[in-house]
Amino acid sequence: MLEIRSLDLEVDGRPVLKDLNLTIKEGESHVLLGPNGSGKTSLLLGILGFPKYKVTGGSIIFKGEDITGLSTAERVKLGMGIAFQHPPVIRGIKLGEMVDLCKGDTSQQITQQTRTLAKKLHFSDEFLERDVNAGFSGGEIKRSEIMQLMAQDPDFVMLDEPDSGVDIENMELIGDMIGELLHRRIRPSKRTASGLIITHLATITNYIEVDWAHVMLNGMIACSGNPNRIISDIMKGGYKKCVRECQKTMDRI
Amino acid sequence: MRKGMSEDNGPDIGKYTLKAEKHNAKDLPEIEDKYKQAFLDVGYDPQGEERSGSFLQVDHSVLCSKVMQEGVEIMSTTDALEKYSWLSDYLWHAVAPEKDVYTQQVDRKQTHGYFLRTLPGVKTTYPLQSCLFIGQEGLSQNVHNIVIAEEGSELHIITGCSVAEKVQSALHLGVSEFYIKKNAKITFTMIHNWAPEVEVRPRSGIIVEENGVFIGNYVCLNPVKDLQMYPVTYCGKNARATSQSIIYASKDSKIDIGSKMVLSGENSRAEIISRTVATDHADVTARGILSGSAPNVKAHLECIGLMLSDTARIYSVPELEATVKDAELSHEAAVGRISEEEIAYLTARGLSEEEAAGAIVRGFLNVDIEGLPPALGAQVRQMIRMSAEALE
Questions:
Q1: Which of A73, A82, A91 is nearest residue B364 as measured by Cβ atoms?
Q2: A98 touching B, CB under 8 A?
């Protein structure tokens, strides 16, 4: 699905990722852990091809195609999607219209399909009339981002901290929906969607099982391996200790 | 001599003709057919469906003044002045005839205009529609409009001003006087659709009496050579007034618009909201004055501009004036560009950068207009949306 080869990435002339390698196969879901400022979000936005994130070395291969030079819109058309951690408010565009946009519907009439999807995410019809992200609570932003992703139905799903600042009730719903997006509820051999999830405290792994975990430090993937082991190492001794432990017996880079 | 009196170096009245070809009412079907789209674009539906009445003036000829609801009056101001001797008390009461060369010209060489009135207690079920249209090249149309909502009545109006596609240059002078009596309400939505060589000078005064409500919406999304207007609303005791304008200024448009709210009645409230987009070589001045001179008045002014080119200009002038100690006046003004973050967000949902920018501009202009009846609100939104769609 996704193969990142020796990627160097800069933001405003400042290097943020160095020689990064990462492979995510079809049907696999990975979590990305690491302290603030280690480059996790930059990696996601680099994969998505945001103009501010400049590739200065290496390449990104998506579904067998080198997408390093493609625009964000082209990458999205190929089947990528993202849930942002801090999305901007867009005045005058209703949440319902935004969900329709995600399906490529620009009619600006909120469709029945969208209303049905909204119910699933516990949004009322009135809520769909609100300007995107305007005055949304933390939990509402998470659900709204996931709703937009579900409308897009991408093959490769990126989630930036879907579990931060979410109360327990919302968390269960979000876990459920992410499980659906990533085909976690069906047999591994049938899974076609893949995912990369940034998570600070790994809360999301209490709700869905993932295949791999990676720890990012200073713009590099410092270790990769079995999620249960890596997460328990981090919980016990922090990121650095986990990386030291894991580098002794590196499963894979 | 005329020129010397003009304070804004605006249109030269002498350049335009007052000799208009006369249209007859029997030509109405033909005219409606010919300009159907132009009428629809400014909210005038020749079929008159879901309207409480219609007024249509083409050049200097009043072709239609049709009432569909009891208690509503629609006619040309000329006819109304003949019919009602009391109307002379209203004429030039909210706007001074000697205000500038344009009001003087309308005073001296008036070419009709509309008189709209709701009788006491009457509430229009559907909006009234009016259209002032110029079909003749080089014409000066000098209308004087009078709108009266009698006590306890409610009057909703959609009015459009436009020119025929073949018309390049014309002058529209329009004096409008609004009288909202005690406990009455007027909503007035005006859509302008001019051409790159048309000059426009509306002059409006709005008097809102005790407990009255005035909601004025103005939409202008197509190029115009030179447009300047500055409606003044006088709020009586407990009166409420709102002015919203939505401007998309493109090409070489020169637009100077704003509102003044005079809060001279105790406990009155006012709000001015202005959204301006400037692109190409457009030059926009967005003004707003809140003037509080009575106890417990409260008003807010929001003036936001979006710049899309390095050759355009937005000059934003918010002004507040208080002459009593418990007046509460505030403003927020901002001019900026489209946020890159917002564009990136929409491209992440599959839109190209151009599509994303278009959606953001449309959204910016898509102001929720409060206070209109739901059906009318939906219709106005639809018109703004349609016009904004056509911008790309």
A1: A91
A2: yes
